[in-house]
Specification:
Blueprint: E1 5-11, E2 16-22, E3 28-35, E4 43-48, E5 53-57, H1 64-75, H2 80-83, E6 86-93, E7 104-105, H3 108-116, H4 125-138, E8 146-150, H5 160-163, H6 170-173, H7 184-198, E9 207-212, E10 216-222, E11 225-229, H8 251-258, H9 264-273, H10 276-281, H11 287-292, H12 298-319, E12 328-332, H13 333-338, H14 340-347, H15 359-363, H16 365-368, E13 381-383, H17 388-401
Parallel strand pairs: 1-6, 6-8, 9-12, 12-13
Antiparallel strand pairs: 1-2, 2-3, 3-4, 4-5, 7-8, 9-10, 10-11
Helix pairs in contact: 1-4, 12-14
């Protein structure tokens, strides 16, 4: 007999992650992901009750729409016993703009706010809304129980000196151009887990959280709240990412436009989809593939070295925000969890700050099922395995419980 559960949808630029999580136990009744959407060899894998994995490879390149239809009509419709336990649907949404400051029901007003923020997250918000549309259609009896959990909400604690840009103030007051941040759901989960592992109350915890995947960001957390973060108005600013440039001199855009005669739309496409690791090595944004050729391919080595340099520079800068007490540095996300090479290169640059890596622990963290990768002399360094879905499920239940 199953308890009440929450369906969680996490729609990315090339994937749809889904899970049905039992509320009281946090047990996953069903979970999986649709990967490589828009690319060759798109596939979906899923598990029920954590038993044998099911998998389907699509013959043709699929869209997000096809992916959602397969999820709802070919997976969830076949698992009625589980689907009947769902009492709410939680959606990870990247950008809430300046209007949304907490997790909210996705009614007409709040959906309009999400649409208004599309200009800040053009790759993500439309896809997030597509998931909302399909969920409301398929679970029509739960139409009023769809909840948006936003990546920008965790960063609402930033002070003006952290979120304003040094441009005429009217662009903020009239157009709301400011730093919003992203990956807030992940950074909040890392904070909560670190608090438990270190046995430090959240309100006393000072740490730096590094969410490193195809999208990458770093957040300074002081006394349990976000006080600075690397992503800005959009998820383009900050660290080197899979296909996004991160920080650049803004004048590069002027140079491309005036001297290279590139259209603004072409420049935007370059900075968002053709830069980062892909732009540096010229072949792939897959960090594992780049790592495999790190020792033999100079462009691969250059790509990872630049990635780690930018990351170490941000960690150094954020250390100054801790008021003299830094409790931990944490890595999460696909690259953060899996790349021992990235962690080694980055931490080796930070000995002046008191970070020292244990190379054996760093290389065997999965086998040992441990969190720590530092030496005895070091400030704690943790690897936190991402479970954003659990955070989304808890937020969703909290919102619908208060209706």
């Amino acid at each position: 007999m199953f308890q009440k559960s929450i369906l969680v949808l996490n729609c990315g630029s090339s994937s749809i992650k889904f899970s049905i999580i039992e509320h009281h136990s946090s047990r996953k009744l069903l979970y999986g992901s649709i990967e490589s959407i828009g690319l060759q060899n798109s596939s979906v894998t899923w598990k029920i009750y954590n038993l044998c994995e099911k998998r389907k490879i699509f013959k043709n390149i699929i869209t997000h729409e096809i992916g959602f239809k397969f999820l709802f009509h070919s997976i969830l419709s076949q698992e009625q016993e589980i689907s009947n336990t769902i009492i709410g649907i939680g959606h990870r949404i990247v950008h809430g703009g300046d209007k949304i400051t907490s997790s909210v029901l996705l009614n007409e007003v709040n959906i309009k706010y999400v649409k208004d923020a599309i200009c800040f997250a053009p790759l993500h918000n439309p896809l997030n809304l597509l998931g909302v549309m399909f969920a409301k259609q398929f679970f029509s009896h739960l139409s009023d129980y769809n909840v948006g959990v936003f990546d920008t909400v965790f960063h609402q604690t930033l002070q003006k000196e952290k979120y304003l840009y040094a441009i005429p103030y009217q662009f903020y007051s009239k157009n709301k151009i400011r730093r919003y941040g992203a990956h807030g759901i992940s950074h909040q989960f890392v904070r909560d887990q670190s608090s438990k592992i270190l046995n430090i109350p959240i309100c006393n915890l000072n740490m730096i959280s590094c969410h490193l995947g195809n999208g990458a960001s770093i957040t300074a957390i002081r006394n349990g709240v976000s006080v600075d973060t690397s992503m800005g108005l959009t998820p383009l600013e900050g660290l080197v990412m899979g296909t996004r440039s991160g920080d650049i001199d803004p004048a590069i855009i002027f140079f491309m436009y005036h001297n290279l005669n590139l259209k603004i739309s072409d420049i935007e496409n370059i900075l968002i989809k053709k830069s980062g690791l892909l732009g540096l090595n010229g072949e792939t944004s897959d960090f594992q593939k780049i790592t495999d050729s790190y020792a033999t391919n100079k462009q691969s080595k250059l790509s990872i070295d630049i990635f780690c340099h930018r990351l170490a520079k941000y960690i150094s800068g954020y250390s100054s925000l801790m008021n003299g007490k830094l409790d931990a540095l944490a890595f999460t996300g696909g690259i953060g969890e899996n790349s021992s090479l990235m962690r080694k290169i980055t931490i080796d640059k930070l000995s002046l700050l008191g970070f020292f890596i244990d190379y054996v622990k760093n290389d065997t963290i999965y086998k040992k099922k441990q969190y720590f990768i530092h030496t005895k002399e070091s400030i704690p360094i943790l690897v936190i395995f991402a479970q954003e879905e659990e955070s989304i499920a808890k937020e969703t239940f909290s919102v619908i419980h208060n209706i």
